[in-house]
Amino acid sequence: MTTQLSAGALPAIAATASVPGYDRAGLTAGILHFGVGNFHRAHQAVYLDTLFDRGRDHDWAILGAGVMPSDARMRDALEAQDWLTTVVEQSAGESRARVTGAMVGMLPVGDADAIIGRLADPAIRIVSLTVTEGGYFIDAAGRFDPEHPAIRADAAAPDRPATIFGLILAGLARRRAAGVAPFTVMSCDNIPHNGVVTRNTVTGLARLSDPGLADWIATAVAFPNGMVDRITPATGPHERETLARDFAIRDAAPVFCEDYTQWVLEDRFVAGRPRLEEVGVQFVPDVTPFETMKIRILNGGHALIAYPAGLLGVEFAHEAMETPLIRRFLERVERQEIIPTVPPVPDTDLGAYFDVIQRRFANPKIKDTIRRLCLDGSNRQPKFIVPTLAARLTAGASIDGLALGSALWCRYCFGETDNGRPIAPNDPNWDRLTATARQARAEPGVWLDMTEVYGEVGRAEPFRDRFAHALRALWTDGTAAVLARYTDGAL
């Protein structure tokens, strides 16, 4: 017999899962969060739930917000279960369920008046967001793009914004006009210097309609950089069925994640913050070393296993790690080319960090799909792979493995696996990528001419040479043979 998740059902659910030990009626919202997806609910919301369980900072609960159709579906699901979420944390040998209660509501999706009204509320002191790597209106170099149609529309009608950044800007403008102190804007996305990127987008948008407001934001609002980490796959029927079978809970939107979690934040907040250091968040003066380590070693590592696995028909990340050719490819590129580019990180052994990442990738409970890891390469490659290439080229060091990784992405975007099965579109720019990949089969250099992805790195002759060599080898001999030659040092 299963129990439908709700506030009233928590005493029954406590038999199979941990439940909030605090009085949720005493919570008040101090954080407005855009993008109440799986990662947010497995990461930020879990840290706050743990803090609240310790009797701390009950005025820092989460109020959700969003502008996308998926946000509306999530709102409907969560409202029906009193804003509760079941989070299943999984190691290779154990799964544990907990019900989190840090969220107290969600505003009507896309209702600009309602969202701006709450952004102007002095009780909201942090606005956080998880909008994916591609949601910040930036180009390959990380610069704000003022010509994006959505940005131009918000700039033309700042009182009727449709984007998250337009809403944040309108909320800050209303607070400034009312003499209310600004809130902190805290990105929780996997972007290098995510605070700087967010500040540039908000102030860049402001400058298009109100330069004075842009100047005020630049000096009065805090945008702390942060590094976030937890592997959190998408939820589907399998996860919901597993939750019902193993924990007797019915939840329309559960989250299954690994048992590992990390959050490193610069301690720059203009209106206070919850005492997250008490529940494992690392507050540091500069997040850059941690950020570089994670983005290059973990996110770059995901890209390295994703595309060869996709071409070989492997479905899950742990299966990729069980494929000797892929695992050896990852190990060789990481230890020989990626890890040497990562500056020292306080209190961290980079080799040991990579060992932990390999165990995380190999966790069979997570069932992280290769398709998810391959998703949105046109936004992820410039952030996770190209900076490492740039560092290696600057040092005059070998880039054979990284060039092969880029060639594997190009081969994947051709739209067929090695055995000829079609690959469904898996990138916002899929049509262009596919057309370019097909041209690159005969002219490899056209792939590197995508300046929005590769920038100046794509013009570097050593990279162009090694990329072309790798891509031609993939077409001539296939993925498995090329990975074998590379791992044997013979490519």
UniProtKB/TrEMBL annotation:
<dbReference type="InterPro" id="IPR013131">
    <property type="entry name" value="Mannitol_DH_N"/>
</dbReference>
<dbReference type="InterPro" id="IPR008927">
    <property type="entry name" value="6-PGluconate_DH-like_C_sf"/>
</dbReference>
<dbReference type="Pfam" id="PF01232">
    <property type="entry name" value="Mannitol_dh"/>
</dbReference>
<dbReference type="InterPro" id="IPR013328">
    <property type="entry name" value="6PGD_dom2"/>
</dbReference>
<feature type="domain" description="Mannitol dehydrogenase C-terminal">
    <location>
        <begin position="286"/>
        <end position="475"/>
    </location>
</feature>
<dbReference type="InterPro" id="IPR036291">
    <property type="entry name" value="NAD(P)-bd_dom_sf"/>
</dbReference>
<protein>
    <submittedName>
        <fullName>Mannitol dehydrogenase family protein</fullName>
    </submittedName>
</protein>
<dbReference type="Pfam" id="PF08125">
    <property type="entry name" value="Mannitol_dh_C"/>
</dbReference>
<keyword id="KW-0560">Oxidoreductase</keyword>
<dbReference type="InterPro" id="IPR013118">
    <property type="entry name" value="Mannitol_DH_C"/>
</dbReference>
<dbReference type="InterPro" id="IPR023027">
    <property type="entry name" value="Mannitol_DH_CS"/>
</dbReference>
<keyword id="KW-0520">NAD</keyword>
<feature type="domain" description="Mannitol dehydrogenase N-terminal">
    <location>
        <begin position="30"/>
        <end position="277"/>
    </location>
</feature>
<dbReference type="InterPro" id="IPR000669">
    <property type="entry name" value="Mannitol_DH"/>
</dbReference>
<dbReference type="InterPro" id="IPR050988">
    <property type="entry name" value="Mannitol_DH/Oxidoreductase"/>
</dbReference>
